[in-house]
Amino acid sequence: MSVTPIRLFGDPVLHRPAAPVVDFDAELRRLVDDLTDTMQAAGGAGLAAPQIGVGLRVFTWYVDGEVGHLVNPEVAPVGEEVQDGPEGCLSIPALRYDCRRHLHVVATGWNVHGDPVRVEGSELLARAIQHETDHLDGVLFVERLADADRAAALAEIRAAEWNGHGSYLPVVKVSPH
Ligand code: NI
Questions:
Q1: Per 3-state DSSP, what percentage of the chain is helix, strand, and coil (rounded to 5)?
Q2: Residue 80 is part of a domain; what is its CATH number?
Q3: Distance 116 CA to ligand 1 centre (A)
Q4: Distance between CA 154 and CA 34 in Å, rounded?
Q5: Cα(9) to centroid of ligand 1, in Å?
Q6: Is residue 123 a part of any domain in this protein?
Q7: CA of 177 to the centre of ligand 1 (A)
Q8: Which of 14, 24, 129, 174 is surrounded by the most beta carbons within 10 Å?
């Protein structure tokens, strides 16, 4: 396990675009392992490299029991349908707001070995892919909220106990059975 501290809202690495991956090497494999372990320890549906302090275009997801990752993703909507539903972010603990997203997307990119990958997703997978791709562009989901919700979310963040702490190490949840 390589559970890594998760950066919190306000850390500059979360608010600037990440750089494309150039080398598909052992360091990239370790990054994908760290993202996967940290995401699962935190119970998240997705995690992007900037959230563990690495400014590279890589993210992982865990949706419907399936773990995946994408390197240098490009995402496009499929059709016009949208979904409104609750969204959160491991870099903004405990905050949840309804966020509008495309219902269906297609993502293309590469796996950790440098093979081309194409992923089609709907509902929660589509939401996770859009949320994590935003992270790679330095965009957090609160910036996607309607004006009133965004103002309320930012006020909640300013008042949060964790605000100013920089990062936290997710506590691995151990099943009682
Ligand atoms: Ni997030």
A1: 30, 35, 35
A2: 3.90.45.10
A3: 24
A4: 29
A5: 10
A6: yes
A7: 30
A8: 129
Q: Decide if 164 is inside a domain.
A: no
Give the range of the structural domain holding residue 60, as residue numbers without chain letter: 12-159
CA distance 176 to 133: 35
Assess if residue 117 is contained within a domain.
yes
For 115-148, the pLDDT digits (tens) are 999 999 999 999 999 999 999 999 999 999 999 9
Looking at the structure of the chain, the number of domains it has is 1
Amino acid identity for residue 113 in this structure: H
If you measure from the C-alpha of residue 147 to the centroid of ligand 1, how many angstroms do you get, rounded to a whole number?
19
Position 173 in a domain: no
pTM: 0.95
Query: Is-catalytic flag, 132?
Result: yes
Of the residues 132, 143, 156, 161, only one is catalytic, namely 132
With beta carbons less than 8 A apart as the criterion, state whether 48 and 135 touch: yes
